[in-house]
Amino acid sequence: MYRTEADSSGRVVTMSFSDHVGSDEMSCCFTQLRALLDHMQPGFLLLTDLSGLDSMDVECAACIGEIMDLCNAKGIKRVVRIVPDPRKDIGFNLVARFHQAPNVEVSIYESLAEAIQCLSCEDAGDI
């Protein structure tokens, strides 16, 4: 199962994965994400939450690469990934080596709470 959404400011896109994700679901996720990115501003942040993920089909890797390519083309600035267990990474780090632009900042956290806390501290420093 997956869920993808964007905030109204055009600055944050969220993708959450849970249970088992098949290649058909990942293709649907890509289609929805493409539509959402049409409304995003360059410099947006992608939050990817893998905390509820149990497994993902190997065939999803190609689509993950396409998602990264699309995000690069739309001007992504930062990726925040929630990975509570390194075994749940399911290849995001490997695919990123080939598909993520080198100027994209990547942060990995063990929990959503930790990610929010760190992002809030960083935002406070920008004020």
Average pLDDT level: 89
Q: What is the N-to-C order of secondary-structure elements (H for helix, E for strand)?
A: EEHEHEHEH
- Kindly estimate the percentage of residues that lie in beta strands according to DSSP: 25-35%
The tally of helices reads: 4
CATH top level?
Alpha Beta
Number of domains: 1
Q: How many β strands by DSSP?
A: 5
* Class based on secondary structure composition and strand pairing: alpha/beta
Helix content: 40-55%
| CATH architecture assignment | 2-Layer Sandwich
Q: Unreliable stretches, pLDDT < 50, 5 or more residues?
A: none
In terms of quaternary structure, the protein is: single chain
Largest sheet: 5 strands, mixed
Provide tags for this entry.
127 residues, alpha/beta, Transcription Regulator spoIIAA, 4 helices, 5 strands
Q: Overview of this structure, please?
A:
This protein is α/β, with parallel strands linked by helices and 127 residues long. The chain has one domain: STAS domain (Transcription Regulator spoIIAA). The chain is built from four helices and five strands. The protein has helices at residues 23-37, 60-73, 92-99, 112-126; strands at residues 2-6, 12-21, 45-56, 78-82, 105-109. The chain has a five-stranded mixed sheet. Helix 1 packs parallel to helix 2 (60-73) and helix 2 (60-73) crosses helix 3 (92-99). It is globular. It starts with a strand and ends with a helix.
